[in-house]
Amino acid sequence: MMRWRQYRRGDPVIFRVTKSSCRPGPRARNIYPASNGELYSYAVDKFWTVVEELGNDMLLLQTRRGKTHRIHAHDPQLRHATWWERMRHGARFPQLTFVDTSQTELSR
């Protein structure tokens, strides 16, 4: 049985988002061309901060621009930032601000 580390308010987390476009950006990882060669599929790491635990294993996360997302705490794309990532990318993790939970997006 795998043990899950609990998330707390203020924890920096990384959420890996899968995207597709004709031009992957500089932060794109795991880039694969589509079969017809016009698009690429890739992953981008998003640097977010835990705002609160909502219950039912759901978390409210805040982006750098102040948006919020509701994500399942056991989502395989979500993980805690390592100490090295916190040092290297510290400016990318948002500082917590007042959050209007009525404007949240539901992911997954």
Question: Top keywords for this entry?
Answer:
7 strands, 44% strand, 6% helix, 1 helix, mainly beta
Describe the protein.
- The chain has 108 residues and is mainly beta.
- The chain has one domain (12-89).
- The protein is 6% helix and 44% strand.
- The chain has one helix spanning 83-88; strands at residues 12-21, 28-33, 40-55, 58-62, 68-72, 78-80, 105-106.
- Strands 1, 2, 3, 4, 5, 6 and 7 form a seven-stranded mixed β-sheet that branches.
Shape: globular
Total domain modules: 1
Rg from Cα: 15 Å
H/E order of the elements? EEEEEEHE
The portion of residues forming beta strands comes to 35-45%
Q: Uncertain runs with pLDDT below 50, 5 residues or more?
A: none
SSE-based structural type: mainly beta
- Helical segment tally? 1
Cα(first) to Cα(last) distance is 23 Å
Q: Can you give the helix content as a percent range? A: under 10%
Mean pLDDT level: 84
Number of strands: 7
Specify the biggest β-sheet.
7 strands, mixed
